Recover the amino acids of this structure.
């Protein structure tokens, strides 16, 4: 069966109390609406149609050409919202599944069940709608599912329109439907205007019944159909999503010591036999290899980290660590930092827009910015690249095997040749040739030949 999907996302989301459209609020690393889009994509070959209204430019900027858009200029209710998709979808599918952009916990398996229920019932009857329902004690805000004495569904009644008896009904409408496409587009315009001045999609149920068409229901997992209206619900949803993400990694062979205190975005990849210690936030497009140990208490945003790396109490963003590199405790990699294979970066260091070649050591209290470091270089404690002259950033090059003495100031632009050394506390302002020792302030060449003294 050919299924099209519609995601309603035009609403105000007033209760978020936010300048940003509700559906753009992030949950477990993705904006809410993106979760709905992913779910829709998993049940249909056609790109979902997202109904946008409030904040439409921002929603469109986020989702781009991944989806099709229907614009609802005036927010006249859920029925009116679906109607906006008619021009795009009429004649394009056998069935139309409608979901919300503020229901990030909904899983595609639940929609598959719904579509299957639809397909089954269609064989036996003149089916118009298959819909999800839930049973729960807290019915507040939900439309009630009204059935006749034979148990057949008759209508959905919005809470505001309920009689006192209907209010007591505990079978509720989560708002997810699979419609017969032809019937949907032919009948949407027949929805009457409600007392509230809206066109309710829920009225399609009563309409179908009045035409003698069949409506069937199937029950949905309770925790998947909680719409997000407030930031309290946003946080609750993120707990559920986070747990799902952690379970996925654990089942893939990642050890997570303290799931309650581990925050991994849905966009992160982790290799097997890696251990995540407590207190880590792994965010964005981060990729971690196998047999690594991450944490405790580290924040890693959009980084690539190789096999057998160690990251301890560190903050890393848009950086890269090759296999067996280690960092921390208390160290920071900023954008463009790249630690080569087996690099050791110890405590209280910062590296920005720099490459450190394999085997290089930077043990303590150092800053390297805009620097190219060769292999097996030793960066002494307190070394600073003075890369900024107040106006421009300048580059430093430190070649293979150089030894930078403690507390050296490297005033860029500057090249330290292979095997060169700087004395403790020197301020280096001029290029240092290979195999040369400099010392002092400003640093001068010492009368020794390092090449000879080594032989
Ligand atoms: C709706 C259902 C109710 C159900 C509840 C479940 C109707 C009339 N009622 O009520 O039976 O129990 O969902 O959560 O459908 N939207 C638009 N354009 C609009 C109005 C809404 O795009 O003009 C979108 C919203 O952004 C939101 C979704 O539709 O994502 C639901 O709208 P909302 O106003 O929250 O509906 P409820 O009053 O909760
Ligand atoms: Ca709602």
């Amino acid at each position: 069966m050919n299924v099209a999907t519609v995601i309603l996302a035009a609403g105000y989301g007033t209760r978020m109390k936010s300048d940003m459209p509700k559906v753009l609020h992030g949950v477990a690393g993705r904006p809410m609406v993106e979760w709905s889009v992913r779910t829709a994509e998993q049940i249909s070959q056609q790109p979902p149609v997202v109904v946008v209204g409030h904040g439409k430019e921002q929603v469109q900027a986020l989702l781009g050409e991944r989806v099709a858009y229907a614009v609802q200029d005036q927010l006249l209710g859920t029925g009116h919202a679906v109607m906006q998709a008619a021009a795009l979808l009429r004649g394009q599918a056998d069935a139309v599944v409608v979901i919300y952009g503020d229901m990030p916990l909904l899983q595609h398996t639940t929609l598959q069940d719904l579509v299957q229920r639809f397909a089954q019932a269609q064989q036996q009857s003149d089916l118009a709608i298959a819909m999800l329902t839930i049973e729960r004690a807290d019915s507040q805000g939900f439309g009630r599912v009204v059935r006749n004495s034979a148990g057949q569904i008759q209508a959905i009644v919005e809470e505001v329109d309920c009689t006192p008896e209907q209010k007591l009904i505990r079978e509720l409408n989560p708002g997810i439907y699979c419609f017969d496409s032809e019937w949907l587009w032919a009948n949407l315009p027949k929805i009457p205007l409600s007392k509230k001045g809206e066109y309710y999609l829920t009225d399609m149920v009563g309409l179908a019944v009045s035409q003698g068409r069949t409506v069937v229901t199937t029950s949905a997992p309770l925790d998947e159909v909680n719409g997000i209206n407030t930031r309290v619900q946003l946080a609750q949803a993120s707990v559920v999503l986070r747990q799902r993400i952690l379970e996925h990694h654990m089942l893939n062979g990642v050890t997570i010591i303290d799931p309650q205190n581990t925050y991994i975005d849905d966009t992160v990849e982790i290799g097997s036999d890696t251990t995540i210690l407590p207190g880590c936030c792994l965010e964005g497009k981060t990729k971690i290899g196998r047999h690594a140990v991450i944490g405790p208490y580290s924040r890693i945003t959009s980084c690539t980290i190789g096999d057998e790396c160690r990251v301890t109490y560190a903050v890393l963003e848009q950086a890269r660590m090759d296999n067996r590199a280690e960092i921390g405790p208390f160290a920071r990699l900023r954008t463009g930092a790249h630690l080569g294979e087996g690099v050791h970066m110890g405590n209280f260091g910062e590296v920005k827009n720099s490459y450190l070649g394999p085997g290089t050591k930077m043990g303590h209290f150092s800053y390297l910015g805009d620097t190219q470091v060769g292999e097996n270089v030793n960066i002494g404690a307190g070394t600073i690249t003075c890369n900024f002259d107040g106006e421009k950033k300048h580059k430093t090059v430190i070649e293979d095997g150089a030894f930078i003495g403690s507390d050296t100031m490297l005033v860029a632009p500057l090249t330290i040749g292979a095997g060169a050394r700087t004395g403790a506390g020197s301020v280096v302002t001029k290029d240092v040739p290979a195999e040369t020792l400099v010392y002092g302030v400003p640093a001068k060449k010492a009368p020794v030949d390092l090449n000879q003294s080594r032989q």
